[in-house]
Amino acid sequence: MKAVVLNGFGAPAVMQLGEAPLPEPGRGQVRVRVMATSVNRADTVQRRGLYPPPAGESEILGLEVAGVVDALGEGVKEWRGGERVMGLVAGGGYAEYALAYAGHLMAIPDAITFEEAAAIPEVYITAYLNLFMIGQLQAGQSVLLHGGGGGVNTAAIQICRILVPESQIMVTASTAKIERVKTLGAHLAIDYRQQDFATEVKAFTQERGADLILDHIGGAYLAKNQAALAVGGRLVVIGLMGGATAEINLGLLLVKRQRIIGSVLRALPVAEKTAITNAFVDRVLPHFRRRTLLPLIHKVYPLAEVAAAHAEMEASRHFGKIVLSVAAAS
Ligand SMILES: NC(=O)c1ccc[n+]([C@@H]2O[C@H](COP(=O)([O-])OP(=O)(O)OC[C@H]3O[C@@H](n4cnc5c(N)ncnc54)[C@H](OP(=O)(O)O)[C@@H]3O)[C@@H](O)[C@H]2O)c1
To answer: Residues of the chain whose pLDDT is less than 70?
Structure first.
């Protein structure tokens, strides 16, 4: 099959369209004929050699797929050949065929195209899991989302608007993306390059602070995140774009009864990811079915132009998701 192969680790040019063996589905797995996949920030880190796949998973990049059921492994009863599916994979998405666990797949609603579907699983499940299942965001609370123009956080703004319409959504973004995050639904948009987000959050919430912060900057933002957090607030750390280490103010943690929680989707046990996928299907998928929720697609690249797609993400020119069309690869 055609797949994106890596000639070493490094800049986007290490990725090329090449050949890889057709994967055989194991027990509980489904082989999907991939029609589209999409680029996630983690792929760019894996490409540089800094984020290896979990043990036993494909070395091929790609964390999500949309396509058609092609072959079933032993024990799979939920799917039949030819069905349109989308879902999380722990690797292997940048290829004509990929393996997914049956419980990690979702039926693509009729109203949704393969390219739209490829932009759904990773970022909307990440947003749903961390805001609602882990972060326990409740109606009427306030939430701070960093990098509101990115894949995860455009999804996060949208699902907050839909699931907790009374919440106060505060977002940081770079100057060029401020107006777009407001249009998408942010009640407060903070230019993180010009403004101090902790000061802005405190002012907007009448000194109360945010009940929940979804953070992927890590070390560089820990102190400011703690300052911006309300009494009883939760800080869910899902990424480390600003470094992995920082000093923590335990006094503030104690007095304000703050909780800091680390969360990573890719390496979760199969059964846990199945439970999360099921919750997502119940709670969020109906909105895609009605097209009252739609992924924001910045651009679709053919798989052969994967290097340009990664360069676009690393230049942060995108708003929403960058999709790779695999249908045209063969
Ligand atoms: N733990 C998990 O399970 C999990 C799952 C999925 C994703 N993630 C993580 O979530 C993060 C986002 O992933 P993605 O695919 O959505 O990437 P993305 O589309 O590239 O989004 C990244 C965003 O970060 C923003 N950003 C960069 N520096 C910033 C700063 N100092 N302050 C505020 N925002 C800043 C960028 O905003 P500008 O362009 O405006 O500068 C960009 O919109 C990554 O770190 C990824 O690894 C974690």
So the answer is: 328-330
Could you tell me if the CB of 311 is within 6 A of ligand 1?
no
Pick the last residue of a domain from 237, 262, 287: 262
- CATH code: domain of residue 322: 3.90.180.10
Any atom of ligand 1 within 6 Å of the Cβ of 113:
no
Q: For ligand 1, say whether the CB of 29 is within 6 Å of any of its atoms.
A: no
Distance between CA atoms of residues 209 and 226, nearest Å: 9
User: What CATH number is associated with residue 222?
Assistant: 3.40.50.720
48, with CB counted inside 10 A (0-12, 13-18, 19+), is middle
The whole-model pTM stands at: 0.98
State in Å: Cα 42 to ligand 1 middle: 9
Query: What is the predicted pLDDT for the residue at 302?
Result: 98
How far is residue 49's CA from residue 47's CA, in Å, rounded to a whole number? Answer: 5
